[in-house]
Recover the amino acids of this structure.
């Protein structure tokens, strides 16, 4: 059952990205409300080049339309410890169940002599790009660059929404963020038993910025039940992840969400994950008047993000090792 009376709020962030206004107090309040009530919000007025977005969509469509063997030329097992490349439908698990989606994993493009790559750190390294669609490389790199800039501005907005100084997160966690980017293709449900494109989960980091095409299928678990987050032209869907839940002691919840493509066409989506630096320890923020919310029973995985200790990398690797059990699992 979907509750169609409740909607994820829409926030215009033009002032935040163009930095034209000295006062962001109204917007900061909107962000606070949205993060507390939904853990999700749409952004408009973000200024991300529409032409580039269109190009990204077209090239991605072109990639997924190819036969499996061609797509497998950049398969994840060739990406080694960097965990980059293509995975076919059914290979990624959410809560132990295969998702009805295929996709490509990307991340910050790091040279072999980068210290983290030299140390053999999982999830760091070079991307795998398809040689037969050469424009995809520059388009993805440019898109990740713009999303990274946007991520920094949104974290400034989130800091303000918590009554913190604008640079709070940059100073402690996201000066050099962990960047992961994925392109997913959700085929239509062919069988009568409709399968989840991605099952119920929360995201792991601080902030996800999602571009979705015009098909729809994303659902968010709001306080009044599951609601749709339908496509809104030239918007992005933002949601907060487990690390922001942890930092705010549950004031900003990492909200469960899931996807089911009930249309008869493929659905493309482009989640961009703006996460804390891999090697930093994520600690609670000293917030005034915050009632700690750590009710594990209502979390999808019955786990507490508040109990773990260690770096963001430790948290992430523990999670993702369950998603792709067959990939390299050791850091060194
Ligand atoms: O495809 C979508 O709309 C959402 C994907 C998602 O939730 C994720 O990758 O974490
Ligand atoms: Fe997600």
């Amino acid at each position: 059952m979907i509750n169609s009376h409740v909607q994820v709020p829409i926030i215009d962030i033009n002032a935040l990205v163009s930095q034209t206004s000295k006062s962001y107090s109204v917007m900061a309040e909107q962000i606070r409300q949205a993060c507390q009530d939904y853990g999700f919000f749409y952004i408009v007025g973000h200024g991300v080049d529409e032409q580039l977005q269109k190009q990204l969509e077209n090239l991605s469509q072109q990639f997924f339309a190819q036969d499996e063997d061609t797509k497998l030329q950049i398969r994840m097992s060739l990406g080694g410890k960097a965990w980059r490349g293509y995975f076919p439908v059914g290979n990624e698990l959410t809560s132990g169940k295969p998702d009805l989606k295929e996709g490509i994993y990307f991340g910050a493009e790091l040279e072999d002599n980068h210290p983290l790559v030299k140390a053999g750190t999982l999830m760091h390294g070079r991307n795998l790009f398809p040689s037969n669609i050469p424009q995809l490389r520059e388009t993805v790199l440019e898109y990740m660059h713009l999303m990274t800039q946007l991520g920094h501005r949104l974290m400034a907005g989130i800091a303000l929404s918590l009554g913190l100084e604008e640079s709070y997160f940059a100073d402690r966690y996201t000066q050099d963020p962990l960047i992961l980017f994925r392109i997913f293709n959700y085929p239509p449900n062919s069988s009568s038993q409709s399968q989840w494109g991605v099952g119920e989960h929360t995201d792991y980091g601080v902030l996800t910025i999602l571009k979705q095409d015009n098909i729809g299928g994303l659902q968010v678990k709001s306080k009044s039940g599951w609601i749709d987050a339908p496509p809104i032209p030239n918007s992005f869907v933002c949601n907060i992840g487990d690390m922001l839940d942890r930092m705010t002691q549950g004031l900003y919840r990492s909200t469960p969400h899931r996807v089911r493509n009930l249309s008869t066409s493929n659905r493309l989506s482009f989640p961009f994950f703006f996460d804390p630096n891999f090697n930093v320890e994520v600690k609670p923020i000293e917030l005034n008047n915050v009632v700690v919310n750590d009710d594990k029973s209502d979390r999808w995985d019955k786990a507490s993000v508040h109990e773990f200790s260690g770096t963001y990398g430790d948290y992430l690797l523990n999670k993702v090792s369950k998603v792709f059990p067959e990939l390299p699992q050791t850091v060194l």
The chain has a mean pLDDT of 91.
